[in-house]
Specification:
Number of strands: 0
Helix content: over 70%
Radius of gyration: 19 Å
Number of helices: 13
Order of helices and strands: HHHHHHHHHHHHH
Structural class: mainly alpha
Strand content: under 5%
Mean pLDDT: 83
Shape: globular
Low-confidence stretches: none
Length: 291
């Protein structure tokens, strides 16, 4: 492996670490603000963080005005579609984290890597044997992770699983628009769209206040600046020199990091049965990534 590829892989791993720990930030942030207030704040922050990056990239690249006008409608349409999908997926995740552990939420969310190729069947894409093997492992792992002797699948597990399904649609939407337009601009618009939708919903369902937001400033800043702005930028830079399959496997490590972060920071723990479920879900993710 070349030095540039190693550096890119390390950037992707750092993004996975940031996203894994973000599950803790999202969980802690709920002690101060409601789910929609937290999402609205972090996505608006994420969009704001990307604005300087877009400015300097555009200045450096010197894009032609004609090309920019031609792409603008597609960029806006893509940003609206991705932003709506991101809003729904992240809202389900945020509500789900209230009722399940950070570690379980991380692994259930990672199932999107298995769900995406399966959904591709409806768009005429073939699914190979590795993906189907991953689906079987994921189902078994999900069962071991979520269903215990004392309780079945709880409300949080279901919400986070629905979140994984919605993230799958989000990924497919990004996959459709990203090759046609500037990916950073697409991300910035989707963050602002999602942030505005979540903030509007927060004023309807919750009672957000500046005092609450300031009290939860640390987890909100982490989830907004680092998880949305910085980690996404690292992903873009890292994926430039790493194969998509390798990149997806590195980024899927966020599920492992979420368990470690929940254990170290929130003192959460998993039973042996649940750890086995985590291992099977992670194996399913790796198999799907190799297809």
């Amino acid at each position: 492996m070349k030095i540039k590829e190693i550096k890119s892989s390390l950037l992707l791993f750092l993004a996975a670490v940031i996203w894994g720990v973000a599950f803790v930030a999202q969980s802690v942030g709920l002690d101060y603000v409601g789910p929609m207030t937290l999402n609205g704040s972090r996505f608006l922050l994420g969009g704001a963080v990307l604005l300087p990056l877009i400015y300097f990239r555009q200045k450096r690249q010197g894009e032609e005005a004609g090309k920019e006008k031609k792409q603008w409608k597609t960029t806006l349409l893509g940003g609206l579609g991705c932003g709506l999908a991101l809003c729904i997926a992240s809202s389900l995740q945020q509500y789900g984290i209230q009722y399940t552990t950070v570690g379980k939420a991380g692994f259930i969310t990672a199932l999107y890597i298995v769900i995406v190729p399966v959904l591709g069947i409806f768009f005429g894409k073939k699914v190979g044997p590795l993906v189907w093997a991953g689906v079987i492992l994921a189902i078994i792992g999900f069962y071991l992770l979520c269903i215990t002797e004392s309780s079945g699948i709880n409300k949080g597990d279901i919400l986070v699983f629905l979140c994984a399904v919605c993230f799958s649609f989000h990924i497919m939407t990004v996959d459709y628009f990203a090759p046609k337009i500037d990916a950073v601009k697409l991300s910035c618009i989707q963050f602002f769209v999602s942030g505005i939708l979540c903030t509007t919903t927060a004023f309807i369902l919750e009672k957000p206040s500046w005092e609450q937001i300031m009290a939860g400033a640390v987890p909100i800043l982490y989830a907004g600046v680092l998880s949305c702005g910085v980690a996404y930028t690292l992903q873009i830079i890292g994926q430039a020199r790493v194969k998509p399959t390798v990149a997806s496997m590195i980024l899927s490590l966020e599920s492992v990091i979420s368990v470690l972060a929940g254990w170290l920071i929130l003192k959460e723990s998993l039973t042996g049965r649940q750890l086995l479920g985590c291992i099977l879900v992670f194996a399913a993710v790796i198999l799907a990534g190799k297809e």
